[in-house]
Amino acid sequence: MQVTQPYIQYMYSYPHKTAYGPLYQVHLRDYVYQLRECGLYFHIPFCQHKCGYCNLFSVAGQSGQMMRDYVDAMERQSQQLARILPEEVCFQDLTLGGGTPLLLPPEQLERVFGLAETYFGFRSPGRGIVVETSPDQTTAEKLALLKQAGVSRVSIGVQSFREEELAAMGRFHTASSARRALRLLRDMDFGCLNVDLIYGVRGQTRESLADSLKQALEYEPEELFVYPLYIQPGTYLYRQGMERAEHMWEMYFHMRSLLREAGYRQYSMRRFVRTFEGRQNKASGGGNPGTGPQMEPPYASCGFSDTLSVGCGGRSYIGDLHYCTPYAVKQSRCLSVLADYMKQRDYLRITHGFLLTADEMKRRYAIRQILYGRGISRKEYLAHFATEVTEDFSQMRQWETAGYVTISDEFVTLTEEGMSLSDYLGPQLISQGVREKSERFFQSGAEHD
Description:
By secondary structure, this protein is α/β, with parallel strands linked by helices. 37% of the residues lie in helices and 20% in strands. It is globular and about 55 Å long.
């Protein structure tokens, strides 16, 4: 099985929001009874600038008044959710993603943490709180606020310490501002510091990637996520016709080797966790640049973890119901969706999302498990679905022959080569129906200028 293009699609959630569509006669009251232990996610869609590669739901250059009005809308949504949540629900972790949550003024950031406690009973002792940030928004004042709120993990999008690479990616911070932010974060001593880097930008070499890794490691982060660059429709780099660097796969192997030598253990294609003595990793989790919650241990114990989201652009997962506001990338479209959210009065009627069939639930489970850590537990899969994973997905046996997975009596686990091909193998598990829905989204021209 010869692989000519190892970078097809980043599979951080299934199905992708481009496959979502209109839903009718769907009300949260009919689903929230399923919630027990789950995650809580607050989406803050504001950024100072829109990065060149960003295809997430975010808007740039908004006023303080807009942010206050947005948090008002989040509170209305939280009030409505609180009225229908079962008493048994327990939110195990809280994530503030975006966007750039720390772009909020301090008083609004405090309000957001207050929403979690007031309406969802979330209190930090013993529970993880994850916040995403970027260098220019990482200030001593706001980090002190995070510390007071009990934040256990801060993820900062550095992406590169080379000025020319930051410019090529359409990033607006500098290497010096990243170093300043990292010193502040380290001095605050959060339980887990995660640093995001990107490889594959035009002009990048193995040597320049190694230099960025070396500089990141000076701050002893508990975790590093190193992402391949994707250039998606609707982004600035896409409109500019940007091409990625050659030899990205070779960069990946070089980066992996360097991180292993530095004492990091690999749990997925992207996630590396510090394992040697010294700082202890007190908070596990993950994410992608500016995305939502992934507060999971090195392997996910269950492929069905639920998440309840508040805000415009955040996804909720409750059993077979996945929902969110309509997906958008372009500024004009994001602003339109945001305006609709802020005018909304009934946040309990679900009008946009995806209802997973039994087959799609199997695919979600398999994708979530195979790409991380130990892989798919054959016993757990059988208990959930009353079928064998290797029978449901014939690809597994083909991958075994190719050396991409090992299949034991207990697990189906990616080999090292298979892990390096996660963005090639994962997309092979997408159903034809989901694939067609996503293709129609892009063919509609909704995210093309």
